[in-house]
Amino acid sequence: MKNIIIDTDPGHDDALAIMLAVKSGMFNIRAVTTVAGNSTIENTTRNARYILKLLGREDIPVYSGAEKPLKRELVQAAVHGKSGFEGLDPQNDANLTGNAAEKIISIAGEGNVTLITLGPLTNIATAIKQNPEAMSKLKEIVMMGGAIRVPGNKSRTAEFNIFVDPEAADIVFRFPAKKTLVPLDACNHVKLQLEDFERIGGKLREPAIAMMKPYIRNIKNNEGVSAALMYDPLTIYSIMNPSACMKGLYNVMVETKGELTSGMSVADMRKKCGKPNMTVIERIDSEAFKNDFIRILSG
Ligand code: BDR
Ligand code: CA
């Protein structure tokens, strides 16, 4: 089993990603760490605890982290609703611990751990600034974020997770660890309908349907796409099934200053700007994902 930390801002697709990771049985989830992004840190932490309870996995520790980006005010997402988890709208305590970066550092320092990020990179950049030595012991950092050859989903050029905290993303992208990026390019074509979630059997069926109804409606209203977009579960899946992924090596940097391009992930397509600093997942087999996802969540 792969040792992982999931840093996340649940969020409907984050919730599905946590469900996929837990139900796959492929991971030893050392911690779930939370960050403000899709919603406030209170909401993302409350939602993370709720999802683990739903899964009967309250033994997995949740540590809360940054309440806002390194240098900017928090911009929340539109599609997850006021609670960050419209449709289920948990009421449990958030129980903030405020020590996500410290816990990431201490688990990373043990070695043989993959860090998966599903939200803005604030906690990770903080951990790198505090203890680069421990963070360089990470086996890999796998990040959902960026838009390489496609438009952004938060601005004309920027994907949400990078848009929210470009300064943090800049620190992480420059950090010399093994890194993989799962950008919009790999996610935009994987679209699930409510009927797909209705194929889920077992305990997760009802909550999955309840949460996907508003998510699909909000995506249609905000992004004009009539489907559930699966950014964060695809990021988990890219680790579960690498043979379903097409990938390339690129040098990718983050624009932190541009008026129109702040938060843009800029890849060197000419391959002239130094060595590649990450693997970029460019395509994921949609049918393989869909079938595995429904089967695993039903299990
Ligand atoms: C990313 O932004 C968030 O809204 C999603 O949870 C995902 O991590 C997609 O741009
Ligand atoms: Ca997310």
Notes on the protein architecture:
By secondary structure, this protein is of the alpha/beta class. The protein has one domain: Inosine-uridine Nucleoside N-ribohydrolase, Chain A (Alpha-Beta Complex), CATH 3.90.245.10. It is built from twelve helices and twelve strands. It has an eight-stranded mixed β-sheet, with helices on both faces. Strands 7-8 form a two-stranded antiparallel sheet. It is globular, with a radius of gyration of 17 Å. The model has no long low-confidence stretch (mean pLDDT 97). The structure holds beta-D-ribofuranose (BDR) and calcium ion. The site of beta-D-ribofuranose has 14 residues, from helix 1, helix 6 and helix 11.
Task: Lay out the secondary structure.
Blueprint: E1 2-8, H1 12-24, E2 27-34, H2 41-54, E3 62-64, H3 100-108, E4 114-117, H4 122-130, H5 132-135, E5 140-144, H6 160-164, H7 166-174, E6 179-182, H8 184-187, E7 191-192, H9 194-198, H10 205-223, E8 228-229, H11 231-240, E9 245-250, E10 252-254, E11 265-267, E12 278-284, H12 286-298
Parallel strand pairs: 1-2, 1-4, 2-3, 4-5, 5-6, 6-12
Antiparallel strand pairs: 7-8, 9-12, 10-11
Helix pairs in contact: 1-11, 3-4, 4-7
Bound molecules: beta-D-ribofuranose and calcium ion (CA).
Notable traits:
binds beta-D-ribofuranose, 299 residues, Inosine-uridine Nucleoside N-ribohydrolase, Chain A, 38% helix, binds calcium ion, globular, alpha/beta, eight-stranded mixed β-sheet, two-stranded antiparallel ribbon
Our Rg estimate from Cα atoms comes to 17 Å
Number of domains: 1
Can you say what the CATH homologous superfamily is? Ribonucleoside hydrolase-like
CATH class: Alpha Beta
Main sheet characteristics:
8 strands, mixed
Q: Any idea of the CATH topology?
A: Inosine-uridine Nucleoside N-ribohydrolase, Chain A
Mean pLDDT: 97
Structural class: alpha/beta
User: Kindly, what is the distance between the CA atoms of the first and last residues, rounded to a whole number of angstroms?
Assistant: 18 Å
Poorly predicted tracts of residues: none
Give the ligands present: beta-D-ribofuranose, calcium ion
Name the shape in a single word. Answer: globular
CATH architecture: Alpha-Beta Complex
Question: Helical amount among residues, as a percent range?
Answer: 25-40%
Element order: H for helix, E for strand: EHEHEHEHHEHHEHEHHEHEEEEH
| Portion in beta strands | 15-25%
Walk across the major sheet and give the strand order. 3-2-1-4-5-6-12-9
Number of helices: 12
Number of strands: 12
